[in-house]
Write a structure and sequence with these properties.
Elements lengths: L1 H11 L3 H13 L21 H10 L2 H31 L3 H19 L3 E6 L5 E6 L34 E2 L1 E2 L12 E5 L3 H6 L22 E13 L1 E7 L12 E9 L7 E9 L1 H4 L5 E7 L17 E2 L10 E2 L9 E9 L6 E5 L3 E6 L11 E11 L26 E9 L5 E3 L4 E4 L6 E7 L3 E7 L9
Parallel strand pairs: 3-13
Antiparallel strand pairs: 1-2, 2-5, 4-12, 6-16, 6-19, 7-13, 7-17, 8-9, 8-16, 9-10, 11-15, 13-14, 14-15, 17-18, 17-21, 20-21
InterPro entries: Glutamic_endopeptidase, Neprosin, Neprosin_propep
Pfam families: Neprosin, Neprosin_AP
Length: 470
Amino acid sequence: MCLMGLLGDVSVTSRRRTTIQNRIKCCLFDHSRRKQQDSRCFHHSSSSHQASFKSDTMFFSSNVLRLILLLCLVSSSFSLSTATSSNSTSAEQTLRPQEELQKLKLIREELLKINKPAVKTIQSSDGDTIDCVSTHQQPAFDHPLLQGQRPMDPPEIPKGYSKEDESYEDSSQLWSLSGESCPEGTIPIRRTTEQDMLRASSVRRFGRKIRRVRRDSTSNGHEHAVGYVSGRQYYGAKASINVWSPRVTSQYEFSLSQIWVIAGSFTHDLNTIEAGWQISPELYGDTYPRFFTYWTSDAYRTTGCYNLLCSGFVQTNRRIAIGAAISPRSSYRGRQFDISLLIWKDPKHGHWWLQFGSGALVGYWPAFLFTHLKQHGSMVQFGGEIVNNRPGGSHTSTQMGSGHFAGEGFGKASYFRNLQIVDWDNTLIPASNLKMLADHPNCYDIRGGTNRVWGNYFYYGGPGKNPRCP
């Protein structure tokens, strides 16, 4: 295009040397701005200048003309290649904008369900936004069987409960260390963001665990080191759980330490109630250990979720935010911190209550959420779990517990202590006949014991990938 314009001008008119210089400038203009070129590039002079045109043309040798033509060819070629590349990229991305818009629309619809109107908002030092939401507007009351209801009154604490068991320093939560708290009649809820949901491998399964066929199956990369009791009817469990910050090496892996109350089979009808601490970069976007809850009534397929990300768990406490970061954490050869958790079934109404720390009731899972757990549990587990995605074809380096094996003991390995279960009479008793199981003991192991101060306890965990765990 530039070449044709130049040749047309040369054959008709010229305004001496400056006119030809302007034509050179014209050829260097950006292709996309060609319509805005200086009018001098296409100016047609009168016939009176034809004589001077000839003399000027002779003045500018054929070498100058070659230079002009070369500049025009380079300009045109560059413009053409740029346009071709741009069109190719646009063609490749034709479908992407629609897909992204649809995904964002779905995310915003989900956020409207999860995030409720806040009476007060608190900014945490770890980057979390904590919304103080009216108790009766929390996600639990979106459930058809809870709509229009209010939280239940506190139940009877199991007999045999003693605060003397909490002899080590309790961990708290980062958001509340500033002294801020939610007002009466509200509960603190960690706000879910678009970024949280964009990290998820599936928007529709955001806040849910990966489905598994069996607890001890590693087909989906889940590995455990747990102590467990089975063979009786269980109405709750209690333990103090050492808090660490194990390394998690992939966004889609996690490391957690928790209590499970289980009923049903490990197939389609598995019922679980779970609580503890976890590190999950996918769910939270960082590597802080966070207090969490979970439940399912169909083996993680369609029911249940983490924390308050679906209707289910009813929170009653205004000082504890489920999903918030725990602080302080234990350090190797340094100070040790733990959290005490108690889960038990209210004998009067049948709901499963959760207590955090020294007497703070967090809330409850309504009995109607479950099938088998409407009556009682058939197994209780305590311990750690990680996800192993086998990066590069080898075992993950994601750590469990402190990242050190059980044999290193106190101050180095992570522990569970004062393991107890709740019996049919709503009484806390020692978790006797505790069995130990490590799916891959060369990667993560477990060792138990009993003493007068800690009752039933165990150390557990490990580094993951190592010479004996390739």
